[in-house]
């Protein structure tokens, strides 16, 4: 039954992710899924809740969903799950989003796993690729070295101001390493964080005309 539920959910969400840009497409879900399974080897969480939360965590993302629609809730209601399971999955999903630093804290082991799994995909080489992919899809500048990164903002301010892709590193991506909550997440994040710092240093040299 578990495999059937996961497969049912997969088929429903894949159609949605295939309409998103490359920063939040089906490949993103596959990577987050692998991250979550890796973390699950060290954390004793409910694997079904973790997997379904991963599959559903972006279908109702405010950046993509149409006004008045909530695919996450619609799909959950169509799956053969108990009321408690649905609540656990939605509680887990709510803690995933960064929201300009205003996201809900991950209080359960499942939410910590999914949050770390998703944030690992936002940093390192793949995080760099995704940042510029999303920025390109939104017509944003690659960089603006005169733009001052915000250190405090509301969720609305975070979502509404179209900063350059490089500024997004300073407003979010470079902050994620220290927000990891699982031991596996912390280990992996360290290397990916250093890679982003090296990339930004090289980019600055090249755009300054020094390399």
Short description:
Residues 21-132 form the HD/PDEase domain. The chain is mainly α and 211 residues long. The chain has helices at residues 2-17, 26-40, 47-56, 71-78, 83-94, 109-120, 124-137, 155-160, 165-171, 183-207.
Would you write up a description of this structure?
This protein is mainly alpha-helical and 211 residues long. The chain has a single domain (2-207), classed as Orthogonal Bundle (Hypothetical protein af1432), CATH 1.10.3210. The chain contains ten helices and no strands. The chain has helices spanning 2-17, 26-40, 47-56, 71-78, 83-94, 109-120, 124-137, 155-160, 165-171, 183-207. It is globular. It starts with a helix and ends with a helix. Residues 21-132 form the HD/PDEase domain.
Beta-strand residue fraction: under 5%
CATH architecture: Orthogonal Bundle
| Distance N to C terminus | 58 Å
Order of helices and strands: HHHHHHHHHH
The beta-strand count equals: 0
Largest β-sheet summary = none
Helix percent band: 55-70%
Poorly predicted parts: none
**What is the residue-mean pLDDT, rounded to a whole number?**
93
Q: Mind telling me the CATH class?
A: Mainly Alpha
Backbone CA Rg = 17 Å
- From the spread of the alpha carbons, the general shape counts as globular
CATH topology group:
Hypothetical protein af1432
Instruction: Domain count, please report it.
Output: 1
Secondary-structure content class: mainly alpha
Secondary structure tally, helices:
10
Organism: Planococcus salinus
Protein name: HD domain-containing protein
Domain HD/PDEase: 21-132
InterPro entries: HD/PDEase_dom, HD_domain
């Amino acid at each position: 039954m578990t495999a059937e539920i996961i497969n049912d959910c997969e088929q429903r969400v894949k159609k949605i992710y295939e309409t998103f840009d490359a920063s939040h497409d089906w490949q993103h879900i596959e990577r987050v899924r692998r991250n979550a399974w890796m973390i699950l080897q060290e954390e004793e969480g409910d694997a079904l809740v973790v997997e379904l939360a991963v599959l559903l965590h972006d279908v109702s993302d405010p950046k993509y969903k149409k006004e008045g629609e909530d695919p996450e809730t619609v799909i959950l209601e169509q799956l053969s799950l108990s009321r408690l399971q649905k609540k656990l999955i939605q509680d887990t999903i709510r803690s995933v989003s960064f929201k300009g630093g205003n996201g809900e804290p991950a209080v359960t082991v499942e939410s910590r796993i999914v949050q770390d799994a998703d944030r690992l995909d936002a940093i390192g080489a793949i995080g760099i690729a995704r940042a510029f992919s999303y920025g390109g899809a939104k017509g944003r500048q690659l960089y603006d070295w005169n733009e001052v990164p915000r250190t405090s903002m509301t969720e609305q301010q975070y979502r509404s101001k179209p900063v350059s892709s490089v500024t997004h590193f300073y407003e979010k991506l470079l902050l994620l390493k220290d927000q990891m909550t699982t031991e596996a997440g912390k280990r992996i994040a360290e290397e990916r964080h250093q890679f982003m710092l090296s990339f930004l240093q090289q980019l600055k040299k090249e755009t300054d005309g020094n390399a």
